[in-house]
Amino acid sequence: MKNIEKIIIFIIFISIFLCCSKQSKKSEDIIDLDNNVPVSVSDLFESVDVVQLETNKECLIGSVTEVFFYNNRYYIFDLKQQGMFCFDDTGSYLFKIFKKGRDRKSMHIWNLAT
Questions:
Q1: How far apart are CA 25 and CA 10, in angstroms?
Q2: Chain center to CA of 12
Q3: Fold of 1-19+52-100
Q4: Sequence-ordered list of residues with C-beta below 8 angstroms from that of 74, at least 6 positions apart, any chain
Q5: For residue 76, what is the DSSP state?
Q6: Alpha helix locations (H) across 1-114?
Q7: Of 25, 41, 86, 99, which sees the most CB atoms within 10 A?
Q8: Domain-by-domain residue ranges, the chain?
Q9: Is the pTM of this model over 0.90?
Q10: Taking a C-beta distance cutoff of 8 angstroms, is the pair 64, 27 a contact?
């Protein structure tokens, strides 16, 4: 169950980053990775919403590779299973897509980020 909570938190962070519009980089927007100052989530975001994904034998995710939020749906790519799971904005499981074949790079056709 703890893995599901980690996946949900990961999905939230990715969704927030993907939903933000592109803005010009100001010097105060740049994070210095050499400066090891602890930062809490509340320092970075005004609010955080947790969406618990439906869990059943049809939608068990093996390895989260990419997560996208598009048209009120979460698309979760699983490289281990070479497929994509789709959930609505409330976390309800909708469908999955798996491409059968020998080409391990075949999943790149589903990459919505490019």
A1: 24
A2: 7
A3: Thrombin, subunit H (2.40.10)
A4: 11, 15, 51, 53, 67, 68, 86, 87, 88, 89, 91
A5: E
A6: 2-19, 41-44
A7: 86
A8: 1-19+52-100
A9: no
A10: no
Distance CA 19, CA 68 (A): 9
Q: How far apart are CA 19 and CA 14, in angstroms?
A: 9
Burial 54-82 (b: 16+ CB within 10 A, else e): eeeeebebeebbbbbbeeeebbbbbeebb
Q: What is the per-residue pLDDT across 31-87, written as a single tens digit (0 to 9) for each? A: 677 777 777 877 888 888 888 999 888 888 888 888 888 999 999 988 888 788 999
Residue 51 CA to residue 88 CA, distance in Å, equals 10
Pick the closest to residue 99 from 109, 89, 113 (CA basis): 109
- How far apart (Å, rounded) are the C-alpha atoms in residues 80 and 63? 6
Q: Is the dihedral of CA 75, 13, 49, 21 positive or negative?
A: negative
Do β-strands 93-98 and 83-88 pair in parallel, antiparallel, or remain unpaired?
antiparallel
